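hi support,

uploading two proteins for the ticket. first:
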Amino acid sequence: MDLLEEYRRATFTFESGDPLGAARMLEPIVEAEPHNAAVRQLLARAYFNSAQLAGAEKQLRTLIERDPSDHYAHHVLGRTLERAGRFSEALPHLRLAAAMKRHDDYEDALRRVETWVGKNGGRTSYAAE
């Protein structure tokens, strides 16, 4: 298997609006190249965009474990946890991302989660309801 060509095909598939198809293509590449951060990041995004939140979380936590200064991985992990209704777990990652890099998307996500927590009496997840 030509991993570079497969990665290019998976990237095209993802960018064409088929994150599920891209994830299927990326899984064997990550298995063959487990330390390739770019492939793992694209797989995490494909999982996120296809609502496979557990898969996205696993890939993002691996990226952060290997590089704690990866602001983008912290942001996407925060968004993944937010989407799963796990606000208390999302906040630290969103705060870190916003502190590491000024970016409108990072600040918007952080404000949104902080506002949700504030409006819900400190409850930090849907499970608390």
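and the second one:
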Amino acid sequence: MTTFDERERAFENQFAHDQEMQFRITARRNRLLGEWAAARMGLTPEETDAYAKAVVQADFEEAGDEDVIRKIVGDLTSAGIDIDEPTVRSALEEQAVIARRQFMEQK
């Protein structure tokens, strides 16, 4: 194996590792956002856990964050909570920072 092949393999491995870490951070962020929304809806701990998992699953509907934001806004509105999309986007950004911090602390 040449040095070039070794470097190429190292870059591929690093890329795969980075993608996996980003996936985990995004999933954690979505879970935290689900917990944030559940607290506003006054859900029980069991309901909060199930709802947070549903938010994580909602992210697989389409690329990007729009599916998660749409779910949270829709669910909060259905629960009678006055909320707008910018508020949810702001909470999403806050939860992303927390998720990244938690992930880095684990290492």
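thanks. also noticed: The CA atoms of residues 29 and 93 lie 9 Å apart.
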